[in-house]
From TrEMBL:
One of its GO terms (molecular function) is ATP-dependent peptidase activity. Belongs to the peptidase S14 family. This is ATP-dependent Clp protease proteolytic subunit. The keyword Cell membrane does not apply.
């Protein structure tokens, strides 16, 4: 059984204990119940919680958050690479949250994949709304931001640098960059999370030197189309470079970057819905991620309705009363009565 967390007591400082969350939360048969059972055995008054996780089960995260907050212990949180999705919620259990300047937080509304009919999808959407409201309340309380401001962050995959997280109140302190190594298998991550994590892990010592004046001039003179093509190729979405380069609504590189992030999310949504071939059409049509979710739900509901299941009992196919070979005509009946 593979674990996604570890808890160790510090021998030299018995008043402190270390907890590391370093993989997908709630997977591998290890649940919040296991985490909380181990947490209850800690006698130290202070917990140093290190997080480097792409997220996972939101309900496990809720349970872990509440257990940490109700433990009566002083919780110090440090993000080592990325605290994404459900991991960002556990991060908020910290009395103090510190982020090195090369780390990230990613937040969004709860997501789920399911199979069912239209009514079941409607009911589950209500469940997601309730879970989302609970998460939003915690983010609002932590940051002091309005519900509308937090809703804007959670409505999509929002990546925040350490500086941005401190600015809005999700973290308390930014410290100099750390060179950290992923302790979970990145090949299982969605492309958007993998890209952000890879960027976070780039050692400062290997940063490319400042370009020579001539090189800088050449980059400054690069056309918008060239920049779009480079960004698309870097994201592994080169087939859509023409779409973004010719879209008049994308007049700046920042807008193209946002479109690429949306395209990654669309591909992930289509993969979850078992409709990977639909992704290209959505991306080329510049369909919003919200509309893609709605369309995929409709497609799944329609496919479910088309799967007719005959539950009638299989009886004897031989008819006991053969059908009358010739239809009876009303005119023939009246003719017979007149002939009497």
């Amino acid at each position: 059984m593979k674990n996604w967390y570890s808890i160790t007591a510090k021998a030299n400082t018995p008043e402190e204990a270390d907890i590391s969350i370093f993989d997908e939360i709630g997977f591998w048969g290890v649940t919040a119940k296991d985490f909380i059972a181990d947490l209850s055995k800690i006698t130290a008054k202070k917990i140093n919680l290190s997080i480097n996780s792409p997220g996972g089960s939101v309900f496990d995260a809720l349970a872990i958050f509440n257990a940490l907050r109700n433990s009566g212990k002083e919780i110090h949180v440090r993000v080592l690479g990325i605290a994404a999705s459900a991991a960002s919620y556990i991060m908020l259990a910290g009395d103090k949250i510190v982020m090195p300047e090369n780390t990230f937080v990613m937040v969004h509304n709860p997501l789920a994949g399911m199979y069912g009919n239209a009514e079941e999808f409607r009911e589950f959407a209500d469940v997601l709304d309730k879970v989302g409201a609970s998460l939003r309340a915690t983010y609002v309380k932590r940051t002091g931001k309005s519900e509308e401001e937090i809703d804007a962050l959670l409505s999509k995959d929002t990546y925040l640098t350490a500086a941005e997280a401190v600015e809005i109140g999700l973290a308390d302190e930014m410290e100099p960059a750390m060179n950290v190594t992923a302790s979970y298998e990145t090949d299982r991550l969605p492309e958007n999370v993998k890209a952000a994590f890879t960027a976070a892990q780039t050692p400062a010592a290997k940063t490319d030197p400042a370009p020579e004046p001539k090189q800088a001039a050449q980059e400054a003179n690069a056309t918008f189309a060239d920049q779009v093509t480079a960004l698309a190729e870097q994201a592994g979405l080169a087939e859509f470079a023409t779409v973004w380069a010719l879209d008049q609504s994308l007049g700046a590189v920042e807008a193209v970057t946002a479109a690429i992030n949306d395209a990654r999310e669309i591909k992930a949504l289509c993969a979850v819905a078992k409709k990977p071939d639909a992704a290209a059409q959505f991306i080329k049509a510049r369909t919003s991620t919200a509309d893609v979710r709605a369309k995929l739900c409709s497609m799944l509901a329609e496919a479910d309705e088309q799967q007719h299941i005959d539950t009638a009992p299989k009886g004897n196919s031989t008819a006991t009363n053969p059908a009358q070979p010739v239809a009876v005509k009303t005119a023939d009946i009246w003719a017979a009565r007149r002939s009497r």
